[in-house]
Amino acid sequence: MLEVTGLRVAYGGIQAVRGITFHVRQGEMVALIGANGAGKTSTLKALSRLLNAAGGSIRYCGKEISALPAHQLICEGIALVPEGRGVFPRMSIVENLLMGAYTRHDKEGISTDREHVFSLFPRLKERAQQLAGTLSGGEQQMLAIGRALMSRPKLLLLDEPSMGLAPLMTQRIFEVIRTVANEGMTVLLVEQNAKLALEVSQRGYVMESGEITLTDEAANLLANPRVREAYLGE
């Protein structure tokens, strides 16, 4: 579904992403793990066209998308849950969810999907008319994921969904990510918590200093001594 070849991202003269190549198959959940500053978020920003790539190719469902404007990617079936959540603070939960469906015109389907989001996140349903800016960090993360799902994406990009969350809330968020993946969603997960990311994914890529240094089945990466020492604290 997603094929990235020789992707480079630069900030001025600084190379944040140095010609990486990777792929995500349809129906797969793939983790991109690495330390802070490894280039993971820059990669997702390039994929979602929030940053212009300095080079390389991004193909989605066989189509080159590296020059498409960011807003068009939603219509193509790609949705990003950004680092920091990016909810609309002065809008209610329901209004935020409807913003996720702004490209759609099927009112019945939108209503059905909203109820599906509420079934995944009952806490959002309880607070449906509450302003997003008054929610806790975990609730805002739930809302950001729900809003992305409202566009009915084929490919979901998740950027650091556990960042700043308490362990119990992180566990709940990852349960939902696993549920969404089990429903057939294709997911590319960028996450600092390597253990959690690899536990829910089929495959993984390890990124260091802007380069992919290791790739394998997720279970093999979890057992890899180098990964365990560097990212699992063992």
From TrEMBL:
It comes from Candidatus Propionivibrio dominans. It holds the Pfam family ABC_tran. Residues 2-234 form the ABC transporter domain. InterPro entries: AAA+_ATPase, ABC_branched_ATPase_LivF/BraG, ABC_transporter-like_ATP-bd, ABC_transporter-like_CS, BCAA_Transport_ATP-bd_LivF, P-loop_NTPase. It comes from the Bacteria. This is ABC transporter ATP-binding protein. The keyword Aminoacyl-tRNA synthetase does not apply. GO terms for biological process: L-amino acid transport. The keyword Signal does not apply. GO terms for molecular function: ATP binding; ATP hydrolysis activity; branched-chain amino acid transmembrane transporter activity. Keywords: Amino-acid transport, ATP-binding, Cell membrane, Membrane, Nucleotide-binding, Transport. Belongs to the ABC transporter superfamily.
